[in-house]
Design goal:
By secondary structure, the chain is mainly alpha-helical. It is built from 23 helices and no strands.
Length: 446
């Protein structure tokens, strides 16, 4: 078994394309599928021209979201370069004595945070993976860095069943877009359902355990990783002028922190999710400025951190284009209808789960996926007399599961850790199989 696993890892490391090439390939595949399975009334040429228009229409629809993700990675990395945060992360890192323990610990915290918010999970998992690898490098310890990176990314397989789950939160709104068909569904029936609580408990035990076993079986190696610590940024800022302006950074940080708190209260009173991307970014911004020695140290840290965001800037528009084709050509409807057409009362939740996993490769956005698949799934579930909360969670599980094979959400982690997709996919694919069994079993049992 060990020999087979090592052969698989070697194959992936040798032949898996970069995330940018994967995005290009997915664009081509989506275009071809849309060309032959949609727009049947038009000629292939006219349909192809229309699909190009859909791609261009979608290309720029994630610009605001792209900037949010750039900031969450940039500011999270900048926060990690402060002395206070580095000490906290180092305490966690020092508690792990080997790769197996490190992978289990990182995955546990990543999954735990994912239940609160997916954005926090992404950035904390990436930072903890990087800092832990730096610590092992400094001490000359052997480490399987790819496995640690996979552990840091594992929370993206569990987030949609937590408090930031797009589909469960959307259907809980009083005036969501499907309220006339399915009504408003409380999170007590979705996030806090017996099924979701049970699968959450199983998964937070199973993933760290599996990674612990993998870490014990597969060897690591000594790596040379330059520490991106607070020293590098703060040593650059020792001139008298910067030192005299420490109070400016502290005051600005306090003002922004108060603003973030007020924003959270406003969101709460409006019935919206308190911890959204804007709240996280404002909080990271405030903490980063406050905890750095002065403004100049903060700006130097930004210079150090900005190198890791290039992948997001160039690849998110490509995925937005893919989403444009899927949405405006009707391809996502074709995929969903195909699964619905072969479903029965017993198999519908499973097929919803599988179809959501497939669609997530091309529409890697929980909210966007519910917007395009939700109406189809809701109507079919109503006709088959299946509980809507269960199919909402089935879609949520499928959406999050294929993140383990889809590198879109791994881009922040890859940018911060310096890892490549081929370094983590061998291990995240194992988690994909685990999730397929666990989530599929829960949907059958409940």
């Amino acid at each position: 078994m060990k020999r087979i696993t090592e052969a698989y890892i070697g194959f992936v490391e040798k032949y898996l394309p970069s995330p940018f090439v994967i995005a290009l390939l997915l664009t081509l595949i989506t275009f071809i599928f849309a060309l032959f399975f949609t727009g049947k009334e038009a000629s292939i040429v006219n349909n192809g021209i229309d699909i190009l228009g859909f791609w261009q229409q979608g290309l720029w629809e994630l610009l605001a979201f792209t900037m949010q993700m750039v900031l969450i990675l940039l500011l999270g990395h900048t926060l990690a370069l402060t002395a206070a945060f580095s000490k906290f992360i180092n305490l966690l890192a020092d508690s792990a004595k080997n790769t197996a323990q490190a992978a289990a610990m990182v995955s546990f915290f990543a999954i735990l945070l994912s239940f609160f918010n997916w954005g926090l999970c992404v950035i904390f998992g990436a930072i903890l993976s990087r800092k832990l690898a730096e610590r092992f490098s400094q001490k000359g310890r052997i480490i399987n860095y790819g496995l640690i990176g996979a552990a840091g990314y594992s929370g993206m397989m569990t987030w949609h069943g937590g408090f930031s789950g797009s589909a469960p939160l959307k259907v809980a709104e009083a005036n969501h877009f499907l309220v006339d068909k399915i009504g408003s569904i409380s999170i007590d029936e979705t996030i806090f359902s017996t099924m979701n609580v049970a699968v959450s408990v199983v998964i937070i035990i199973a993933i760290p355990l599996v990674l612990l076993l993998i870490g014990q079986k597969l060897p690591g190696k000594n790596i040379k990783l330059q520490a991106s610590s607070e020293t590098s940024s703060e040593e650059k800022s020792t001139d008298k002028e910067a030192e005299d302006k420490v109070w400016i950074a502290k005051l600005l940080g306090i003002i922004m922190l108060v603003s973030a708190i007020l924003y959270g209260f406003r969101q709460y009173h409006q019935g919206a999710n308190i911890i959204d991307l804007n709240f996280i970014n404002l909080l990271l911004f405030a903490l980063s400025i406050s905890l750095h020695k002065n403004l100049r140290a903060f700006l130097h840290a930004v210079d150090d951190a900005i190198k890791g965001v290039s992948g997001i800037i160039i690849q998110f528009p490509l995925y937005a284009g893919i989403m444009g084709i899927m949405k405006y050509s009707g391809l996502v409807v074709v995929i969903s209808d195909t699964f619905v057409s072969i479903s029965t009362v017993q198999t519908f939740p499973i097929f919803t789960f599988i179809s959501a996993a497939v669609v997530n490769f091309f529409v890697p956005s929980g909210g966007g996926q519910w917007a395009v698949q939700g109406p189809i799934i809701a109507e079919a579930a109503t006709n088959l007399n299946i509980a809507i909360p269960k199919v909402v969670m089935a879609l949520s599980y499928g959406d999050q599961l294929s993140n383990m094979l889809q590198p879109f959400w791994a881009l922040p982690l890859l940018g911060l850790t310096g890892l490549k997709a081929k370094d983590i996919i061998p291990y995240t694919s194992v988690l994909f199989i685990l999730g397929l069994v666990v989530y599929g079993s829960v949907l059958i049992i409940f």
